[in-house]
Write a structure and sequence with these properties.
Chain B: Pfam families: CDC50. Chain B: Keywords: Membrane, Transmembrane, Transmembrane helix. Chain B: This is ALA-interacting subunit. Chain B: It is a multi-pass membrane protein. Chain B: It is found in: Membrane. The structure holds 2 protein chains of 2 kinds. Chain A has 5 domains: 80 residues, no CATH class; 129 residues, Calcium-transporting ATPase, cytoplasmic transduction domain A, CATH 2.70.150; 242 residues, no CATH class; 221 residues, HAD superfamily/HAD-like (Rossmann fold), CATH 3.40.50.1000; 184 residues, no CATH class. Helices cover 44% and strands 17% of the residues of chain A. Chain A is built from 37 helices and 37 strands. Chain A has a 9-stranded mixed beta sheet, with helices on both faces. In chain A, helix 9 packs parallel to helix 26, helix 11 packs antiparallel against helix 26 and helix 13 packs across helix 14. Chain A is elongated, with a radius of gyration of 37 Å. The N terminus and C terminus of chain A are likely disordered. By secondary structure, chain B is of the alpha+beta class. Chain B has a domain of 219 residues. In chain B, strands 1-9-3-7-6 form a 5-stranded antiparallel beta sheet. A 4-stranded antiparallel beta sheet of chain B has the order 2-8-4-5, with no helix packed on it. In chain B, strand 4 and strand 5 form a beta hairpin. In chain B, helix 2 runs antiparallel to helix 9. The chains are: A alpha+beta, B alpha+beta. The interface between A and B is large, with 143 and 126 residues.
């Protein structure tokens, strides 16, 4: 344990138990000069997260453990049929493709409806359409989807093949000690594999040895969780030292590990070498998908292979949510079904009555001819009695009127959402420069929900703040050192380490307090100086940071890059370095710290996870002084951490050491026994001081919150931070303002919670009463009533959530303008989201960046992940991901508004469009003795919603903008349109349907009356109706388009042209009855006059209504559109292009 | 969804493309298209526009309406219903028996007076009421392949129940439509002088050339136990059987006219036309009406006031709306694009 460089020995503890999310800070115990630190500020409730994950991980029992014989795959657990290492991400094989793909596709209800109709049509009695026309659209859609799926699957097959065919060096089981290349797919559990630097790891394996004499290996897990920093993994000394005998097969080594699971941050196992048991944790396993870095080689034994590896278990699909609009749409679809059934019943009943009245005429009337005489038996031809006739007519009516339910809408909606996603992803205002990340649409079916959000639940760290910790100040033994100056990169005050002829300096510069620097460098052994030195030594030593030496253009200068899992730790180590305590080397067994030029080596003996329960023994005045400073720091919004130390006597140390060894190799309850050991040593600590770390607010956060608030969105902040920090951040991001009345609930029993809630309700109702009186007197913009802010902590929430007090909390929380929840655990975050989601119809959005936000992101209607410093778990769970909090404003106010407006209009329009067509057919049916003849050719009725009118609605659904980005950002209140569901509701649906009926009447009856008693034939009139309805619905769309660009023009007028061409084409087929009809009718003036009359008469009601409402009952959108066009402000004179940049147009958003 | 799924898998098990160069920026390339800033026109219904649109429609529609009415007025039309009057009085109780009896004399004489000068060509139509030529059973009962080519004469699918004879020989032309061919005939005379009715070119040329074959001769036609209508000349190819071609262009509506022929000479007001007709066609079994129509035509077709009235109505309504909107705009003006109309500016209490 003793080392050569220094007489004193330092024992640090390194992590044993799987750090579930991460050990945010490590508390440590030490003897001699080492320090023990205790964090006071638990960042983002990671402890609770740890418990949650820990609980889900059952302690390892032999029964369900997997036993792996190292180097002997043959003996490895014959009980289990272990899969090879071949992975299979492809869904289909050559044989299963057709059945499985069809099965997948027919899980959509719409396709089943399609199929049912097509099948009905195949019955000879019901054959309304020809075989081709009835099956073709479905077949087409199925084929296109199948080809798309097949292509995707082919790519997956190909990548699987590449992946499975890669080579890995596997130990020859014969005992030669040689490594031979094997293909990845042939690897088996128990085989010993060697991985070289920069190679990918082929399967999950336990490290046996690495090129580093101490057994350290560094891996990059970017493919696994997106984190780019290096993680340290360790091979056990027991296996390192016996490597030759293990590889030669002379020592039986076996590993007992848990069965495969998805937890990439946990691993429970133990290793038996020569009968000696050693425990293994997450730090001893390297996972498939990672890459070995900065390590020449590593040898490990495969424990999980193929689809059992953690990365494969985690590669599940995206969450599927259904948008609110779609739910509403389904309600209207039901209504439409009712209309459809009514129409069908009406036709079939009328048909029955007609048959009954004309019963005696059916034998002879030429057009009915009841009997077939050709067989000689005069049997009925296609006549089964009135009752059956009615039944058949009903089914036929369903087939003919099927497009009342706009099946094509489902397909066009998917296309539109895809298009909207394309534009959101490409929007350069949603691109984050610092992390080089674009906006990501992970869920494709809730785009329009972004336009209806009422509640935003935000995480704090990493979401509102950058999660880039910067050391700001420290208090040491009660003395405050916060007079730091910003360092210049080449200034004299920057601390360098001289190594040979090279200068090494920390990559990140930290401001230093000159007083403290002087104190540290003073020669005299003052009490103050000693404490300060201990303080910084503790900061430099007690962590899991790995220093990496990076070259610079100047060969003499190197940078020290501190890589670690916790940004707080990084900040502390950079701070220590700036004060001259530079961590320059870390292996699994020791660290080297350059203390003001003096190189010192410390052995790491053990490491306890961070825990906030630590007892101290201290003079009251120092505690008081430290506490005062702590309060000052946290009210400045700094994250605080108290550092303490304890010297251990040799006896104490021996006792702790044996306990620690025992606990860390325990198979059962390892976590608990380690905690017990830690609490035994982490007491009676001597306070060294405390640090203050600033977590900078992200750019544009206050402005974004202000915009959201104006848009009528309530922003709730849920954080794991302590109350003071949360409040100060609340102030700095303008969430809280000085005129707000704060209601604080900090209770630790149910009774006191109840009381504070009741008080709060009383206060709030009083304020609401005052403000309602005040409304009459005060005028002007902005909120009038006294704003209320609710601040509640996690302890109170424990007593409130999921009890009857929830109701009270809901009541008070919805009255308050701002809600701030501090010290909340991850599950509580989800609970708070559920509190709102369960009780209101309002849409909720959760935004967060860390693993602790996952539950909340999944709970909310819309989950947004910030792809920031904290890995990718939040992103993986989210529906949308972006780089910065402030992007929420353009995302919701601009894209959300547009998407909502577009999809809402598109649904209504599709309903209307198909209804018009169905009603026209229905009117005609009334003149065909209710026999469902269609004048419109079957091809036209199939192509109507697929080709003649499909493209414009998709184009408008993707491209139309009611207002420009600039206006929407200037008037956030315009967002209310979506919140109040103004663009899609039952009233609009009914109005639209009435319009549809009117237009169908016009389209049908103008030609009917004009061509009554003429020689006109069915096909010609059918063509007239086809062209009239296609043009009319396109004109209807054209009238509602807000913005005409060339694509809109092309699609609308192009569609009409395509329809005309198709009608002409269909009438050029000699085998159809309508041959040449269109040419004949187009030559007549009557045809054109009918068309013109239809357009005018069909559109007048809608046009008049539009003109009236837009002028006399203008909504905000309308006014703003006029402002955009006619407003004489400088603001609006710029061209579209110059408006584009968010930060430019909004001076407020420049920092 | 598949997409998303695929990419997740791809990046996690892929060959390290995620760790690949971070240097190349993912910054979206600027283009007006991707930023949704294509130059666009933003129409707004200003009062000027609304009034102009209504006025324009009025200005266009009223003259068209007047022109249509005038055209319709110029058309002289003589309509004579003869189905009831052409049944001998003793047979009125059982018209069906009368019409089905092949022995009785079906000829019937009608006199029509020309009310106004009719200039040639004068179209002769027969009009059937209540005959559902668009009935589903009926309209499908034909085979266009058979009509077109001699070699396809066995192609009778879809022709039920008039497909084949009892001994299985195909009927050409098959199907209910052909079977029910109208077969009343008309002979016109003024005084003693016969009026020639030109029956050439009454059908569409496209039908004669491409739809009805020049080598297709009628075969086994109208040979079943139930006679539906007219018989065809077995020596004339279908392309020359113009009555059939006209008949087989099925009418859109249950009341329809079909062209019988053209009288290519002017008729003067007061002329009395004697029509000698053969009342062969059975409409009595379904109480259908038969009418003989003589009509001139205008640029708009036959006599029909509807379109003229409709245009006048729409045009008039638009003028009215134009005036109404003008008045309302004057009485209750609103400045366009005035931010004070924004809802949150109107009632400052807000929500």
């Amino acid at each position: 344990m003793a080392d050569g460089e220094r007489t004193a020995f330092v024992d640090l503890l390194r992590p044993i138990a799987d750090p579930p999310v991460r050990p945010d800070l490590i508390s440590l115990s030490a003897s001699a000069t080492a320090a023990a630190s205790a964090a006071v500020d638990p960042p983002h409730g990671s402890r609770a997260e740890a418990d949650r994950l820990g609980a889900s991980l059952k302690e390892l029992a032999d029964a369900d453990a997997r036993i792996v014989f190292v180097g002997d795959p043959g003996r490895t657990d014959p009980r289990l049929a272990l899969p090879g290492n071949a992975v299979r991400t492809a869904k289909y094989s050559f044989l299963t493709f057709i059945p499985r793909n069809l099965f997948e596709q027919f899980r959509r209800l719409a396709y089943v409806y399609f199929l049912a109709i097509a099948v009905l049509n195949q019955l000879p009695q019901l054959a309304v359409f020809g075989r081709g026309a009835s099956v073709l659209p479905l077949a087409f859609v199925l084929l296109v989807t199948a080809v798309k799926d097949a292509y995707e699957d082919l790519r997956r097959h190909r990548s699987d093949r590449v992946e499975n065919g890669r080579a890995a060096a596997v130990l020859d089981p014969a005992g030669s000690g040689q490594f031979r290349p094997h293909r990845w797919k042939d690897l088996r559990v128990g085989e010993v594999i060697k991985v070289l630097a920069d190679e990918s790891i082929p399967c999950d394996m336990v490290l046996l040895a690495t090129s580093d004499p101490t057994g350290v290996a560094y891996v990059q897990t970017i493919n696994l969780d997106g984190e780019s920093n290096l993680k340290t993994r360790y091979a056990k000394q027991e296996t390192m030292s016996r490597l030759p005998s293990i590889t030669a097969g002379s020592v039986t080594t076996l590993i007992r590990c848990e069965t495969p699971n998805r937890n990439i941050y946990g691993f429970h196992a133990n290793l038996e070498v020569d009968g000696k048991r050693v425990s293994l944790g997450a730090s001893n396993i390297i996972l498939r998908g990672c890459e070995l870095k900065n390590t020449a080689w590593a040898i490990g034994v495969a424990v999980y292979t193929g689809n059992e590896t953690k990365v494969m278990l985690n590669s599940s699909g995206a969450t599927s949510k259904r948008s609110r609009l779609e739910t509403h749409m389904n309600r209207e679809t039901l209504l439409l079904s009712a209309i459809l059934i009514t129409l069908c019943s009406a036709v079939s009943i009328c048909n029955g009555i007609w048959l009954a009245i004309h019963r005696d005429e059916l034998e002879l009337s030429q057009y009915f001819r009841k009997r077939d005489y050709s067989g000689g038996d005069e049997k009925y031809y296609n006549y089964y009695g009135i009752a059956m006739q009615v039944f058949f007519i009903f089914l036929m009516a369903v087939i003919v009127f099927q497009i009342m339910i706009p099946i094509s809408l489902y397909i066009s909606m998917e296309l539109v959402r895809l298009g909207q996603a394309y534009f959101m992803i490409r929007d350069k205002n949603l691109y984050d420069e610092s992390s080089n990340s674009r906006f990501q649409c992970r869920a494709l079916n809730i785009n329009e929900d972004l336009g209806q959000i009422r509640y935003v639940f935000s995480d704090k760290t990493g979401t509102l703040t950058e999660n880039k910790m910067v050391f700001q100040c420290a208090t040491i033994r009660g003395i405050d050192y916060s007079e730091g100056k910003d360092p210049s990169p080449n200034g004299s005050d920057v601390y360098y380490v001289v190594v040979g002829d090279q200068f090494w300096r920390p990559k990140m510069l930290v401001k230093t307090d000159p007083k403290l620097v002087r104190l540290l460098r003073s020669e005299g052994e003052t009490q103050e100086g000693k404490h300060a030195r201990d303080f910084f030594l503790a900061l430099a030593a007690c962590n899991t940071i790995v220093p990496l030496i990076v070259g610079t253009p100047d060969p003499k200068q190197k940078l020290i890059d501190y890589q670690g899992e916790s940004p707080d730790e990084q900040a502390l180590v950079y701070a220590a370095a700036a004060y001259g305590y530079v961590l320059i080397e870390r292996t699994s067994g020791h660290i080297v710290i350059d203390v003001l030029g003096d190189r010192q080596r410390f052995n790491v003996l053990g490491l306890h996870e961070f825990d906030s329960i630590v007892t101290g023994r201290e003079y009251l005045d120092i505690i008081r002084a430290t506490e005062t400073n702590l309060h000052a720091y946290s009210s400045m919004g700094l994250r605080t951490l108290v550092v303490g130390m304890r010297e251990l006597s040799r006896n104490d140390f021996e006792e702790w050491h044996s306990d620690y060894e025992k606990a860390s190799t325990a198979l059962y309850g390892r976590g608990n026994s380690l905690r017990a050991v830690a609490s035994r040593v982490e007491n009676n600590l001597q306070i060294l001081g405390a640090s203050g770390i600033e977590d900078k607010l992200q750019q544009g956060v206050p402005e974004a919150i202000e915009s959201l608030r104006q848009a009528g969105i309530r922003v709730w902040v849920l954080t794991g931070d302590k109350q003071e920090t949360a409040i100060s951040i609340g102030y700095s991001c303008k969430l809280l303002t000085s005129e707000m009345t704060h209601i604080v609930i900090n209770s630790n029993s149910e009774a006191s919670c109840r009381k504070s809630l009741e008080d709060a309700i009383a206060i709030s109702s009083k304020f609401v009463a005052i403000s309602s009186r005040a409304q009459n007197t005060i005028t002007g913009t902005g909120s009038v009533r006294v704003p209320l802010a609710l601040i509640i902590d996690g302890t109170s929430l424990v007593h409130i959530l999921e009890t009857e007090l929830e109701e009270k909390l809901f009541k008070i929380a919805t009255v308050c303008d701002v809600v701030l929840c501090c010290r909340v655990a991850p599950l509580q975050k989800a609970g708070i989201v559920a509190l709102i989601k369960k009780r209101t119809e309002d849409m909720t959005l959760a935004i967060g960046d860390g693993a602790n936000d996952v539950s909340m992101i999944q709970m909310a209607d819309v989950g947004i992940g910030i792809s920031g410093q904290e890995g990718r778990q939040a992103v993986m769970a989210s529906d949308f991901a972006m780089g910065q909090f402030r992007f929420l404003v353009p995302l919701l106010l601009v894209h959300g508004h547009w998407n909502y407006q577009r999809i809402a209009y598109m649904i209504l329009y599709n309903f209307y469009r198909n209804a018009v067509f169905v009603f026209i057919m229905f009117w005609y049916v009334l003149y065909t003795a209710y026999t469902l003849t269609t004048a419109i050719t079957e091809w036209s009725s199939v192509l109507y919603s697929v080709l003649y009118t499909a493209l414009p609605t998709v184009v408008v659904g993707i491209l139309d903008k009611d207002l420009s980005r600039r206006t929407l950002l200037k008037y956030p209140k315009l967002y209310g349109t979506g919140q109040r569901e103004e663009r899609y509701n039952l009233k609009l649906f009914i109005l639209t349907m009435m319009d549809a009926i009117w237009q169908s009447l016009v389209v049908f009856f103008i030609p009917y009356l004009a061509y009554r008693d003429t020689t006109v034939d069915g096909s010609s009139l059918g063509d007239l109706w086809t062209l009239a309805v296609v043009t009319l619905v396109n004109i209807h769309l054209a009238m509602d388009v807000f913005r005409w660009n060339w694509i809109t023009h092309l699609s609308i007028w192009g569609s009409i042209a395509v329809a005309v061409m198709c009608v002409i084409l269909i009438d050029s087929i000699w085998s159809l009855p309508g041959y040449w009809a269109i040419y004949h009718i187009m030559k007549t003036g009557l045809f054109w006059l009918c068309l013109l009359g239809i357009f005018a008469a069909g559109m007048i009601p809608r046009f008049t209504m539009k003109a009236l409402t837009e002028y006399f009952m203008p909504n905000d959108i309308q006014i703003s559109r006029e402002l955009e066009k006619f407003g004489n402000f400088n603001y609006f004179t710029g061209t579209e292009i110059s408006m584009s940049t968010f930060s430019e147009t909004h001076p407020g958003f420049i920092r | 969804m598949n997409n998303v799924n695929g990419s997740v898998v791809g990046s996690s098990s892929g060959s390290g493309d995620g760790s690949a160069p971070r240097r190349n920026s993912k910054r979206p390339k600027y283009s007006r298209f991707t930023q949704q800033e294509l130059p666009a026109c933003k129409p707004i219904l200003t009062p000027k526009w609304v009034i102009s649109v209504f006025t324009l429609i009025g200005v266009v529609f009223v003259p068209i309406g007047i022109a249509s009415l005038m055209a319709s007025n110029d058309v002289v039309e003589i309509v004579d219903r003869y189905d009831n009057v052409c049944v001998p009085p003793n047979m009125t109780n059982d018209k069906v028996a009368y019409i089905q009896n092949n022995e009785t004399d079906k000829s019937c004489r009608r006199t029509l007076e020309v009310p106004k000068h009719m200039s040639q060509p004068i179209y002769v139509y027969y009009q059937l009421d209540n005959f559902y030529q668009n009935h589903r059973r009926y309209v499908k009962s034909r085979n266009d392949a058979q009509l077109r080519k001699h070699s396809q004469e066995n192609e009778t699918s879809g022709c039920d129940p008039e497909k084949r004879t009892k001994d299985g020989a195909p009927i050409v032309p098959c199907g209910l439509i052909a079977w029910s061919l109208f077969n009343d005939t008309y002979i016109f005379a003024i005084g003693n002088k016969n009026l020639t009715v030109n029956k050439k070119g009454i059908s569409w040329k496209s039908d004669r050339d491409h739809k009805f074959g020049k080598d297709v001769l009628p075969k086994n036609f109208q040979s079943g136990p139930l006679i539906g209508g007219g018989k065809l000349d077995d020596t004339k190819p279908l392309s020359e059987q113009e009555d059939l071609i006209v008949w087989m262009r099925t009418a859109a509506l249950p009341t329809f006219r079909k062209l019988y022929g053209r009288i290519e000479q002017d008729l003067n007001a007061g002329d009395v036309i004697t029509v000698t007709l053969e009342n062969n066609y059975n409409t009595y079994s379904f109480s259908g009406k038969k009418k003989l129509v003589l009509s001139t035509s205008s640029w708009l077709g036959g006599k029909n006031d509807f379109l003229g009235i409709a245009y006048l109505a729409v045009g008039g309504l638009c003028f009215f709306l134009a005036v109404a909107f003008t008045i309302v705009y004057l009485v209750k003006p609103r400045k366009l694009g005035d931010p004070s109309y924004l809802s949150w500016n109107r009632n400052p209490a807000g929500h």
